[in-house]
Structures are given as structure tokens and as C-alpha cells.
Amino acid sequence: MSDTILRTENLSKSFGGLVATNNVSMNFERGQVHAIIGPNGAGKTTLINLLSGELPASDGRIFFKSRDITKFSPNRISRLGVGRSYQKTNIFPSFSCFENCWVGAQSRLSTSMRFFRPAKSLKEVTERTERALDLCGLNHQRDTIASSMSYGEQRQLEIGMMLATEPELLLLDEPLAGMGTEESKQVIELLRRLSKKHTLILIEHDMDAVFSIAERLTVMVNGRLLETGTVDEIRNSAAVQEAYLGDEEVH
pTM of the prediction? Predict the structure, then answer.
């Protein structure tokens, strides 16, 4: 049975007079792919930034595995087992695939800022790096310089860097943005593989992709939660069709 790995209570974020996220209370269940959809300006990325510690909450609380992490830094949240990807690719272009993932792997060590480490620690980092490359499907490009890779492969590499931290929960902000059809298929397949052993919270505008991999969906409008349900429930929701799709049927 699934259980709650992350939850929010009355979570809000304001920027001056603008309320970007308004009184959001929701549960994310362990082992599920939970997609958050909504029009531009709905507050989706702000919510992800709050969950990852990138932004401080104006009000409300966030719990990861029942622990209050509301005021934790991004680094501390990462060390607890939460990975995060961004709308724009966030890699080291001049590094190889292996070196990029190695940076992610070593960041999880308690001695990550020490330049002289025991051989055992270096072995752990290397093993994490190898696992991440295998998981993200780029082991065959381990020595390839990141800047020479296709955009889709760079997005895979960013996910690999995140996997090198060995997270339980993945926060994915538009992982398919800017991709062509074939690249999107590869990343969708990667996310499908990852969902077997990880919890995924996904923001994505590609509705075909969302409906193909998500088990639960939440619709946001103007910073508020409109509705949460299964794919079929969201497809058939009159409120979602009216508020999000302008009375158009969800295909």
C-alpha cells in the first residue's frame, strides 16, 4: 500500500501583493507519479520551488516523511532524499557525463567540501555515479562532453545528476520542455522506468505525456488547487474543462 511521503498544509507564497500559491494543502503518495497541471501563472513552479526549499513559504507548512521541512535549505532537503530538476537545463557544459554525475554524487557525502577524503568515500561516489549513469541511460556516453550532446540528452543528464544524489522523491519541472517528438519519447520512457522505484512529482505542459505516465493529477488555477483525481476523473471534470481548457474536452 502507498503512504504519504510529502504533504503540505495551507501552503502560501506571496510576492508583494501577488499571491502565487494560495492555501495549498495536498498529499503526495509514495511510489506514485503525481502530475501538477494548469495554465501559465497557475503557481505550479512556485509550488515546486517551495517544496525544494528554493523559496521560503509565506505561510503554511511542508512535511517530508512526517518531518517538518518548511524552513530547511535546498541542500538540507536534498540530503533528506529529495531531487529537483529545473525548466532550464542545469548542467556543467564543459564536463563529461561522468563528471557531471560525479558532482551530484559527491554532494551527498557529509565530507563533500573536503578535498582529501578516505578511499572508501571516493569509492562510494564512483559507485553512485555509475548507478546514476545506468539509470538515466547514458552509460554509453560517460566520456562525452555535455556541451556536445543533444538537448534531449542534456535533459537526461540533468536527471542523471539528480539521481546521483540517490533521492526517494523527484521534483521534475517541465522535463520535456523544448524537445522534439523522438527526444520526448526517450525522456518519457526514462520517467516511466524511474517511477518503478521513485516517487515523481511532475510539472508538464505536454498533456499526452502527462496522461500516459501520471497516476494522479492536480489542477491549479490562479495559485489555488482546483481539483485532484485520477486521469479519468480529471479528463471528465467539467470544472477542469471550463477553468483550464476553456470548455474544450481533455484528450
Answer: 0.89
